[in-house]
Design a protein that fits this description.
Layout (H helix, E strand, L loop, with lengths): L1 H14 L16 E6 L4 H8 L7 E6 L10 H13 L3 E7 L9 H10 L4 H9 L4 H5 L5 H13 L9 E7 L6 E5 L4
Parallel strand pairs: 1-2, 1-3, 3-4
Antiparallel strand pairs: 4-5
């Protein structure tokens, strides 16, 4: 089992005091929040491609690096990082070949049913106002999606005027980063 392997490794990690080389405090050294996708290809690549070390940034992730609502949990995390943890910049980083660009909400619902979610549960949620198309739809281009997330952050009523908000796209194959939008305040 994968969890058992991870726990066994952790026991050795702690006993060997491997954590000591990662010691830092909770204030990000680069005073930055990075909001990115939960993409597994970026777990190490993003950090190495941008020279980010342990303690440098606050890292917030979700599927597709998408913010659609100004008070969702991602935005709350960003605001806490700004007001409580001294972050002064926010960088949204999407990536090419993102699974969210291919989400078909009808097929996603079918997969939910195939994996044991009762059709009645889905109907009940829909009748309660949960719009699966709105909640789970992806995007056409990663650049448009990054720009949309950046705009939600930049236009947030609780964002201090000194906070810079940038948008980037990374290639998960090469690590090459392109700027979608840069805030040069």
């Amino acid at each position: 089992m994968h969890l058992d392997d991870m726990l066994a490794f952790n026991k050795q990690f702690v006993e060997g005091k491997e954590y000591e080389k990662y010691t830092t405090d909770s204030i990000p050294n680069k005073k930055m929040v990075i909001f990115t996708c939960m993409e597994s290809r970026l777990v190490e690549l993003l950090h190495r491609a941008l020279n980010i070390q342990n303690g440098d940034v606050k890292m917030v992730k979700n599927a597709g690096a998408i913010i659609r609502k100004p008070f969702d949990s991602i935005m709350k995390g960003i605001l806490v990082a700004i007001f409580e943890l001294q972050a002064e910049e926010v960088t949204v980083i999407g990536h090419h070949d993102c699974g969210m660009s291919r989400v078909d909400t009808k097929k996603l619902t079918e997969k939910m049913i195939e994996k044991g979610i009762d059709e009645e549960t889905i109907r009940t949620l829909e009748n309660a106002g949960i719009n699966f198309d709105h909640e789970f739809h992806g995007f056409s281009t990663v650049e448009e999606s990054v720009a949309q997330s950046v705009n939600v952050i930049r236009n947030h009523p609780l964002l201090p005027p000194y906070v810079k908000v940038h948008g980037l796209v990374i290639d998960p194959g090469t690590g090459k980063v392109d700027v979608v939008t840069r805030d040069d305040k």
